[in-house]
Fold this sequence. Notes:
By secondary structure, the protein is of the alpha/beta class. The chain has eleven helices and 16 strands. The longest helix is centred in the C-terminal third of the chain and has 17 residues, at 316-332. It starts with a strand and ends in a 9-residue tail after the last strand. Bound molecules: phosphoenolpyruvate and manganese (II) ion. Residues 102, 272, 298, 308-309 line the site of manganese (II) ion (MN). Residues 102, 128, 132, 184-186, 207, 237, 272 line the site of phosphoenolpyruvate.
Amino acid sequence: MMIIMHPGAPKAQVEAVIAEIENQKLSSHLIEGVEQTIIGAVGDGHYVAKEIFEALPGVLSVQRISQPYKLASRQFHEQDSIFELDGFSVGSTEIPIIAGPCSVESRAQILEIAQAVKEGGANALRGGIFKPRTSPYAFQGLGEEGLEYMVEARDRTGLPIVVEVMAVSQIKMMEKYVDVFQLGARNMQNFNLLRAIGETRTPVLFKRGMSATIEEMLMASEYIISGGNTRVMLCERGIRTFETATRNTTDINAIPVLKKLTHLPVIIDPSHSTGDSAYVSAVAKAGIAAGADGIIVEVHQNPAHAISDGRQSLTPEAFAKMVKQVKAVAEAVDRCLVSPLTIRED
Ligand code: PEP
Ligand code: MN
């Protein structure tokens, strides 16, 4: 339910509404706009009569949210959500680019590629330290040591870091250092992990499960947002279909559909979507043309020798070329790349 207050309703009236929401065993979520305050009442509230809230002083109207996801829905928050990261915003007109290797492989590797992606136009650095590998015998990531190298790469380049968290037990160690948690496709419905991430205040890059519907994705993101961690960006990273020519099938439709259903920013991952560096640039451009708010892409200095996902990794040169083309596509749809003026220079 959304309780819309009269413009200028005093604080005491807002507090009385919140008290009633809690009295009804629902959770309250306050959105204070410039002109209007809206309070979300979320939980199993179908049995709670609207009239209880309509009768309270200062309440203009009460609306039920018909979507099964509440806080993520556009019904709840009509405007696009925009949030600031270090040096850029997500969800505004500018299109941030997150780039880096699939895995942090060594100190030298990550320091070199961090500098290369920065020069190619990246606004943030990605790099996995815990890797969700299909085989338990494959490289599982450098763990905490890898995080130290990511932090050093951030210190040297000024690029904020995006790192996948795979387990509740890793959160405490990671949250002090990581600018954005990546929630991987395989964990999209790991509800314990989602709730634990919801308890943090670290922004999240939330990947679609490889067989998840858009509705399941939004419902899962709600686990994080309902914990109070509202800075969630959704990521289309390809889904499983009957097609075998590419690793996954990019659900390009998901981008405008998500933009309609939710106020959360939407990011395209052309690397896992295709699994092949030959198609990455095309799908990155398609994603931006379709309305995505950002890109996360894998780049490696020597893709043929990458420990994971080399086949889909761009070289730094191919990455820089992709960024130039993405810029043109972004401008064609009234967007832009992050202005170099806002990129931190330390
Ligand atoms: C990754 O980003 O390297 C990754 C494992 O992605 P996904 O969870 O989308 O498969
Ligand atoms: Mn990968």
